Amino acid sequence: MILRMIIMSISLSIDAFGIGISYQLKGIYLSMRARVFIGIISAGVMAFSIAAGQEMLEFFPNNVSEKIGTAILILAGGIFIRNAIFGSGENSCDLDKSKDINFLEAFLLGIALSADCLSIGIAAATFPISTIGMPICVGIMQCIFLWMGKAFVEKKCLRKEINEKMCGILAGCILIVIGLFR
Predict the structure, then answer these.
(1) Model's pTM, two decimal places?
(2) Higher pLDDT residue, 47 or 68?
(3) Angle at 35 between CA 90 and CA 45, to 5 degrees
């Protein structure tokens, strides 16, 4: 249960790693306070979606609920991959072009990064998973992966070829594998 929770949290946070890389390469500063705020938003969205998923899945027998959860994971993984490949390119939440993410911009970035949590949280509701632990794990992973993207660029451990597209494809593949081997 814990391993599945960690793997799902990592797959939801890989895009945060891409954002951390992208922002650092663009010279956009993402403070610790902004990263923590983004993590809190992601945790809240995950908690809400798990609760909503548990409520929705009460209407279905367990075997149907499990199949729905598996289908959502595989579909979400496919959507991650499609969006990564055919997406409109990198977007920035630095609306005022100040090169510093303020409270409102961190809120918007948090919502964008946690949008994936909605579908995955509903799918996670079909697993024997901690309804408290999963949101906390997602929030922590979002903070860590945002920082890691920044740190890797600062330490020149990554080349510019590593981008949000590659992170999106990897996240999608992880979700599909979780769904298939569930």
Answers:
(1) 0.75
(2) 47
(3) 85
Rounded Cα distance between 137 and 27, Å, is: 28
Question: For residue 126, which of 50, 48, 59, 45 has the smallest C-alpha distance?
Answer: 50
Residues ≥6 apart with Cβ < 8 Å to 76: 116, 119, 120, 123, 172, 175
Confidence of residue 179 (pLDDT cuts 50, 70, 90): low
- The type of residue at 149 is G
Average pLDDT over residues 82-96: 66
The amino acid sitting at 74 is I
Distance of CA 177 to CAs 16, 33, 74, 172, 174, Å?
20, 33, 8, 9, 5
C-alpha span between 40 and 42 (Å, rounded): 5
Q: Helix, strand, or coil here: 100? A: strand
Instruction: Please list, residue by residue across 79-88, b when 16 or more beta carbons sit within 10 angstroms of its beta carbon and e when fewer do.
Output: ebbebbeeee
From residue 156, alpha-carbon distances to 21, 126, 152 in Å are 11, 41, 6
CA 162-168-173 angle, 5° bins = 115
